[in-house]
């Protein structure tokens, strides 16, 4: 099979930042599915792993990354019970395993869902990682429930891949009042299209949120930089409120500043369940299936904003470059 990977952490402009190569098609065993991939999407985790996995060394084996895919089940391991050959599936995968930047991939059935019937291959490929991240953060970590309907949520980073689906799920599934941050005209418009009630500029966050009519908010989720926005979040969160983040702080976070308000703080990493083979790992299968129904009945819509045609090093470099610019809106997909 054809795969694309890297052996050194190089700037995306370098010729060998991604290399195309042939390798053995893997064999499905145990609870693994062998999936023939038809489309993938890129996420910030992709370029972070590419930039940091082989900084001062050359890897002996070419590393295949990628954590969003849609495709057809080609074969199943002997212990598989959830899927059969020919099923259409979508998933985000496992960061400890070989990724989706290949023509075929092995993936544990417990972290795979059925592809939404009404979405194209490209539309479906855009969704798993961001959708799982948001669903776990809202409903498994913060534990937002029916009694929270109507409460206020501030989303820091509303126009990115995670923020886009977070706006939709917060609004359409949880029934929250959504305030999203965006600074450029096109990203502000995108947030409104996703269903945000208010869009504010993150550059003067406290003032902007308060000018929108909220002295404080019930929930805050950070999808950008927990260090950069920490003081603003401490100011804006209501007493007994909850803050969640997916970002990677370069400095310590001072949790003591939350004590006076008895505020809870939650980390979310979508890979935790697969990385540690947790007892509830199959929860991701159920979330993806539940989301498939929500796509099919029109409750939520795909957040694809750009589709590149052809599985090539050129397209992967282009997609990573767009993400690294920090100005991409929604999701970037590569269709095979």
Question: Secondary-structure map with pairings?
Answer:
Layout lengths: L1 E4 L13 E4 L9 E11 L1 H9 L16 E8 L11 E4 L12 E5 L3 E3 L6 H5 L2 H14 L10 E5 L4 H13 L3 E5 L3 H10 L3 E3 L4 H7 L5 E6 L7 H7 E9 L18 E4 L4 H4 L7 H14 L7 E6 L3 H12 L6 E5 L1
Parallel strand pairs: 8-9, 8-11, 9-10, 11-12, 12-13, 14-15
Antiparallel strand pairs: 1-2, 3-4, 3-6, 3-15, 4-5, 5-7
Helix pairs in contact: 3-4, 3-9
Pfam family, one: ADH_zinc_N_2
Subcellular location: Cytoplasm
Subunit structure: Homotetramer.
Please give a structural write-up.
The two termini are 13 Å apart. The chain has helices spanning 44-52, 121-125, 128-141, 161-173, 185-194, 205-211, 230-236, 272-275, 283-296, 313-324; strands at 2-5, 19-22, 32-42, 69-76, 88-91, 104-108, 112-114, 152-156, 177-181, 198-200, 217-222, 237-245, 264-267, 304-309, 331-335. Strand 8 (152-156), helix 4 and strand 9 (177-181) form a beta-alpha-beta unit. The strands form 3 sheets. Strands 3, 4, 5, 6, 7, 14 and 15 form a 7-stranded mixed beta sheet that branches. The chain has a 6-stranded parallel beta sheet with strand order 10-9-8-11-12-13, sandwiched between helices. Helix content is 28%, strand content 24%. The mean pLDDT is 97. The chain folds into 2 domains: 2-127 and 272-335, Quinone Oxidoreductase, Chain A, domain 1, CATH 3.90.180; 130-267, NAD(P)-binding Rossmann-like Domain (Rossmann fold).
């Amino acid at each position: 099979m054809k795969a694309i990977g890297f052996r050194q952490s190089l700037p995306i402009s370098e010729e060998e930042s991604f290399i195309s190569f042939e390798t053995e098609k893997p064999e499905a065993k145990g609870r693994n599915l062998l999936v023939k991939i038809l489309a993938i999407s890129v996420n910030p985790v992709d370029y972070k792993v590419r930039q940091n996995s082989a900084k001062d060394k050359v890897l002996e084996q070419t590393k295949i990354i990628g954590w969003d895919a849609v495709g057809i089940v080609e074969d199943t391991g002997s212990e598989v019970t959830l899927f059969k050959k020919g099923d259409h599936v979508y998933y985000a995968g496992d960061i400890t395993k070989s990724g989706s930047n290949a023509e075929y991939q092995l993936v544990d059935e417990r972290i795979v869902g059925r592809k939404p019937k009404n979405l194209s291959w490209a539309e479906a490929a855009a969704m798993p990682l961001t959708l799982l991240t948001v669903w776990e953060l809202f409903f498994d970590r913060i534990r937002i429930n029916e009694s929270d309907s109507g409460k206020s949520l501030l989303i820091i980073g509303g126009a990115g891949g995670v923020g886009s689906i977070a706006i939709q799920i917060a609004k359409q599934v949880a029934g929250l009042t959504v305030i999203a941050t965006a600074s450029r005209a096109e990203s502000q418009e995108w947030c409104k299209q996703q269903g945000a009630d208010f869009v504010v500029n993150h550059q003067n966050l406290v003032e902007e949120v308060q000018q929108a009519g909220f002295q404080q908010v019930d929930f805050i989720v950070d999808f950008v930089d927990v260090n950069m926005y920490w003081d603003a979040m401490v100011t804006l969160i209501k007493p007994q409120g909850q803050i969640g983040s997916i970002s990677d702080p370069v400095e310590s976070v001072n949790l003591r500043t939350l004590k006076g308000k008895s505020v809870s703080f939650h980390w979310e990493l979508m890979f935790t369940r697969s990385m540690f083979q947790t007892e509830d790992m199959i929860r991701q299968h159920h979330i993806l299936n539940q989301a498939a129904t929500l796509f099919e009945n029109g409750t939520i819509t795909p957040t694809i904003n750009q589709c590149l045609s052809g599985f090539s090093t050129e397209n992967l470099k282009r997609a990573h470059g767009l993400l690294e610019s920090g100005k991409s809106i929604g999701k970037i997909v590569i269709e095979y």
